[in-house]
Amino acid sequence: MKPKAVIKLAVDVVMTLALLFLMGYHLWGEAMHEWVGTGMLLLFIAHHILNGHWHKTLFKGKYNALRILTLCIDFLVLLVMLAQMYSGIVMSRYVFDFLPFSGGMSLARRLHILGAYWGFILMSLHLGLHWNMVMGMSRKAAGIKSKAKSRSIIAFIVGLAIAGYGAWVFVKRDYPTYLFLKTEFVFFDYNENKLLFYLDYLALMGTFIFAAHYLSKFFRKIHLRKKTMTGGTPILKN
Questions:
Q1: Cβ atoms within 10 A of the Cβ of 220, count?
Q2: Which residue, 21, 156, 190, 218, is the most exposed by fewest CB within 10 angstroms?
């Protein structure tokens, strides 16, 4: 793998781990949450710099259904990150405590809840839409040169099982309540087991990765069929 590809993969992996860590706010305390959140923002900026070619090609080429969906998800992720940046700075008691902010705490709290829960879903969907690329880079890193049908079947079965459990976690942890801001305060179980908490959230992330990945495969098949019917050469991009 090229050095830049290794760096990009490392940044994305650390961002994913940071995202999971941040969802466990009650398990680590406010100061740690703020520092990791600040690191997440820096990683997000680094991610965009490393993927600068995406910005250059934004207004080039044709937009099919998959590309439109990907752009919408990316735009929403950007909005969420801006909301988290603003609300996090306003509510900060440690990292940005030196800034002269006063008031606006109620709005910031609402934005932070919405940004956290919608952001987790949107970033998981973003990861799922690029899962082919992630798996391709992982295979290269592991030295696996060919795709095996048996591995694909096993991966689908495992992914489906994780997605099913994640869907149950979505209901069990009352996720819709926070997505639609039915309350301005999040219920935290400060005594829950850290390992079980993160297994739940890994499964929940897996649910949206699984859904986005197979939705993207569906759109690619439609695109391929259209290209074949019109006699064109299909060009499928991650």
A1: 18
A2: 190
Q: Is 106 exposed, middle or buried (0-12, 13-18, 19+ CB in 10 A)?
A: exposed
- The residue type found at 85 is M
10 Å CB burial of residue 112 (0-12, 13-18, 19+) is buried
Tokens representing 206? 């897996």
Q: How far apart are CA 45 and CA 86, in angstroms?
A: 15
Band (pLDDT 50/70/90 cuts) for residue 1 is: low
Share of the chain above pLDDT 70, in %: 95
* 34 and 95 Cβ atoms separated by less than 8 Å: yes
Q: For residue 22, give both structure tokens.
A: 């941040």
> How far is residue 176's CA from residue 94's CA, in Å, rounded to a whole number?
30
Asked if residue 34 lies in contact with residue 88, where contact means CB atoms within 8 angstroms, the answer is: yes
